[in-house]
Fold this sequence. Notes:
Blueprint: E1 7-11, H1 15-28, E2 32-37, H2 40-50, E3 54-57, H3 66-76, E4 81-86, H4 91-100, E5 104-107, H5 112-123, E6 128-129, H6 131-143, H7 158-168, H8 173-180, H9 184-198, H10 203-212
Parallel strand pairs: 1-2, 1-3, 3-4, 4-5, 5-6
Amino acid sequence: MADQALRVLLVDDHPLLRHGLKSLLEDVGGATVVGEAADGAEAVELALALEPDVVVMDLVMPGVSGIDATRRLLDARPDMGVLVLTMSDDDASVFAALRAGARGYVLKGSGGAEFLNAVRSVARGEAVYGAGVAGRIRRFLMSGPASPASSPFPDLTEREREILDLLADGRTNAEIAQTLFLSLKTVKNHLTSIFSKLQVADRVQAAVRARQAGLGE
């Protein structure tokens, strides 16, 4: 497929990032951005209507997450190429995306050339992963699945994991404080640390990441 023929749909809830990716794809990569979406539900609707060659999908968005959107989209159009472009590099996010059917997984810190090559590879029907993600997959295949007892988000403390689990279960800060016998201020401080470690902006994004990793009900 010629680069000029590449039709790309961008899915990310940050307009400035979409603008930068569009410029990179069109001005440098010779592709055409046929549409933009700010959440997963809109992504599925536009992808089915526009039929792009590649959907560049963020994972953490308000409403329908990138994982759910990928799953819904590929249930309807199994041949469509989805390239995940995200800040999330933990095992739970990587393997959730692969199970949903994403054909590629690249981190937002990657260079422009790596991103463009990934888009072209996915359009050709190839599977492509950034160097760091590929290393995680190799280690997983060599060591086998993690035991059920292993915990997601190893950077979190035990208390932070407890709070994240309750957050994923839909509890308010006050309910979390009451359940764990903590002050409201202490809960808020722990949440600030959790958001930083998970590289998310707010409670909604943290809850999405937590549910993807199996926390909450």
